[in-house]
């Protein structure tokens, strides 16, 4: 493992080595490790799983809430420009309160709806013999812990499935901080087979 001194001298952000298409991360930075492994999983699914198509419904929901909040802020700004304070006071108060309420709603949405979800996909059978299967993948890393928690769930009427896997980050990252994609790809295939077999 690299020395801890490298944490202060190096950047904590993940880097993509374009010359060899490798994902590299500072192993001492938990949030960056989690985000980089998430990105690697997304990369594998998008490039290797031909029957999967990424969806962004949760991200779209977050974007809608944010857009509405920004809209109220813009209304307050424009109205105050044409009707300076104190005439604009009621509108400013209403828009400000609404903005902060929406920011609270956004935070709750991220906590209780998204729940760390980083990838959504729909799996379509080319032969159209089976219904579409909707996947949702989420992850987390506890503070000061090296355990990467990966959760996968799917919905395929009338079936559903869920699995939770806990792995040390060392299972996917080498001594240089590079994500070992073949190992990660193998683990993902095992998880998918396990959850489908479990709920089959």
Number of alpha- plus pi-helical segments: 5
Radius of gyration: 22 Å
Order of strands, widest sheet: 3-4-5-6-7
Q: How many strands, what sense, and barrel or not for the largest sheet?
A: 5 strands, antiparallel
The end-to-end span amounts to 41 Å
Classify the secondary structure makeup into a structural class: alpha+beta
Percentage beta strand: 15-25%
Strand element count: 7
Order of SSEs = HEEHEHHEEEEH
Poorly predicted runs are 1-20
Integer tally of domains: 2
Keywords: Endoplasmic reticulum, Membrane, Transmembrane, Transmembrane helix
Subcellular location: Endoplasmic reticulum membrane
GO biological process, one term: protein targeting to ER
Pfam families: SPC25
């Amino acid at each position: 493992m690299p020395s801890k001194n490298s944490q202060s001298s190096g950047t904590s952000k993940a880097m993509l080595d374009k010359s060899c298409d490798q994902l590299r991360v500072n192993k001492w930075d938990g949030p960056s490790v989690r985000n980089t492994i998430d990105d690697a999983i997304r990369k594998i699914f998008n490039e290797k799983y031909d029957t999967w198509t990424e969806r962004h419904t949760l991200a779209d929901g977050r974007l809608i809430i944010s857009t509405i909040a920004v809209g109220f802020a813009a209304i307050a700004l424009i109205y105050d420009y044409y009707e300076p304070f104190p005439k604009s006071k009621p509108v400013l108060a209403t828009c400000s309160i609404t903005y902060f309420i929406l920011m609270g709603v956004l935070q709750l949405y991220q906590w209780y709806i998204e729940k760390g979800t980083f990838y959504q996909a729909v799996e379509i059978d080319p032969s159209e013999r089976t219904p579409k299967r909707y996947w949702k993948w989420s992850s987390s890393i506890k503070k000061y812990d090296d355990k990467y928690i990966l959760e996968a769930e799917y919905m395929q009427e009338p079936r559903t499935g869920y699995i939770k896997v806990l792995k040390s980050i060392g299972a996917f990252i080498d001594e240089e901080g590079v994500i070992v994609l073949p190992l990660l790809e193998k683990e993902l295939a095992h998880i998918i087979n396990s959850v489908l077999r479990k709920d089959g």
